[in-house]
Amino acid sequence: VALAALALALRAALAVQWPCFQRALRPLTGSRPKSSDCRRLGLELLAMKAGSGGSLAIPLIPLSDGNSIPQVGYGTYKVGFIPASASSAAAGAESAGGTQRTAVECVADALEVGYRSLDCAQFYGNEADVGKAIQSSGIPRADLYLESKVWTDKIYEGPEAVRAQVEKSLKDLGTDYLDLYCIHWPVPGKHVEAYLELEKLQREGRIRSLGVSNYAVEDFTELMQKATLKPVVNQIEINPFLYRRKTIAFFESEGVKMQSYRTLRDGKAFDNPEVQRLATKHSRTPAQVLGRWCAQKGFICIPKTTKKARMIENAQIYDFELDAEDMAKLDAMTTPENIVNFRALYEKCVNRDTPKAGSMDGVKTDITAD
């Protein structure tokens, strides 16, 4: 009777059918979850929902270091600020026309609708504004998950610069610890010592979990020759149009969770006929189809938007499931050209904004690209 009452309460609170809720847990458990798994994660969802004041119910993903991260977070790249060296081509559909909203406004909206995980970075240039939105929200620090990353210039300058940047991010965000801190790009000859400095900062309690971003298999192998702690996350571009199976399989075999940026491909795939067909089939939006594909694979997602309605839309991906045929169709959308373009971007970005920018000095040219 007690379990039945719990199930009914969860269904009412989460507005999710119980069988669909079980299916939503499959990426987190590796198989059809037991009732105990559903109850455990359901209680986490319920606690997040009830304690947040928002309306989003987002599951937590366990990390290899014993911490957990919300599966869907709010991405702050190009929110209120566009970095000087950012590619204008990647600005996304929302950047064309209209008045640019501030990061304070956008993050305030994200927190109001229920997001509790914020993906930040030195490079994004808006952490002080993100911190203002957090402070104004009144949300307890313990209810938030804050992630940041150190950029290539500080990585190149060395461990002292990396430490100084972590302290600046802490100050700008108004916190005394970060839940996750990552090396943004594997700068040749520099990223390993930068990561070792992050290990020291973790021992000092300034960082709870360590991660990397844009790492190839070969970068991870190089890192682990000296690192004492495995990163718990590798943040890379993942979507049906850049689905690098070998790379993802390798990191997952190492216990590293994959975090997807450009989950929605900056809105540029919303007109894709197959994506639109699946959206119609499931009575969802193209953004929700792409987000559901990512979540159903078990990846962590950080969609970005400056529009409040789309913030809600992007997180509402747990009340439907893509079937095996749907997933196979989306899995097959990565073209050889997309892999070639990724390799070129990697070779450009590892030295970006350093004295070696524009050169191939130290750049790995034989990485696992797919």
Strand content: 5-15%
How would a crystallographer describe the biggest sheet? 8 strands, parallel
* First-residue to last-residue Cα separation: 50 Å
The average pLDDT value, as a whole number, equals 87
Number of helices: 16
Choose one word for the global shape.
globular
Going by helix content, strand content and strand pairing, the class is alpha/beta
H-E string:
HHHHEEEHEHEHHEHEHEHEHHEHHH
Task: Explain what the structure shows.
This protein has helices spanning 2-14, 18-24, 26-29, 35-52, 103-113, 127-137, 152-157, 159-173, 191-203, 217-223, 245-253, 273-282, 286-296, 308-315, 324-331, 336-349, and strands spanning 60-62, 68-70, 74-75, 117-119, 145-150, 178-183, 207-213, 233-237, 257-261, 300-301. An eight-stranded parallel sheet has the order 3-4-5-6-7-8-9-10. It has a two-stranded antiparallel ribbon with strand order 1-2. It is α/β, with parallel strands linked by helices and 370 residues long. Helix content is 45%, strand content 11%. The longest helix is centred in the first third of the chain and has 18 residues, at 35-52. It is built from 16 helices and ten strands.
